User: Fold this.
Amino acid sequence: AQRVTQPEKLLSVFKGAPVELKCNYSYSGSPELFWYVQYSRQRLQLLLRHISRESIKGFTADLNKGETSFHLKKPFAQEEDSAMYYCALDQTGANNLFFGTGTRLTVIP
Amino acid sequence: KAGVTQTPRYLIKTRGQQVTLSCSPISGHRSVSWYQQTPGQGLQFLFEYFSETQRNKGNFPGRFSGRQFSNSRSEMNVSTLELGDSALYLCASSLGQHGGLGYTFGSGTRLTVV
Assistant:
């Protein structure tokens, strides 16, 4: 069965420090993986998806099939990055997202 | 263009009642999904519709149902409400037939069952 694990519920880093939000998944097929972010009092929004290999707001995430991970990284954290981050998996062609439990990132000024 | 619109924003119902929530997807998006968000269980998939057909269903009891209209608008219904149904219900729409393009979420309907 598919599963998405975000081991850290809370993560605090200082402004300018690197940040890494961990995400591990369990799925026997080829997954489609996403990171969603929810800023305070805003709706859940797509941050990035692995198929596009893009960098959004300085964040990147690489799919590592060997380690079944899709960690989110940013070299220099900014205060505006403080938010709730969710890793999500979509089974190929299934159109239903499995979400991790989320990591609340706080960037300390 | 307008985002995903969910109505109403807030609802208070009593146990045993039923409720209908509405979702208007982004224009041109034909896939609509519903999710339940609670502090204890997080975000859980309810069901997904594409071109008026339910293609996927999550692990929820039959009291939870939905439908999609020809204009892609969707409704979900919960019958015989229980206290545990109190949650934020999120709707998401997607352009593609498959979810690889990602989903755009609405602000949600917060349902409180008393």
Observations:
- Chain A has a mean pLDDT of 91.
- Chain A touches chain B at residues 32, 34, 36, 43-46, 49, 51, 86, 90, 92-102 (CB under 8 Å).
- Chain A has no helices and eleven strands.
- The first strand of chain A starts at residue 3 and ends at 5.
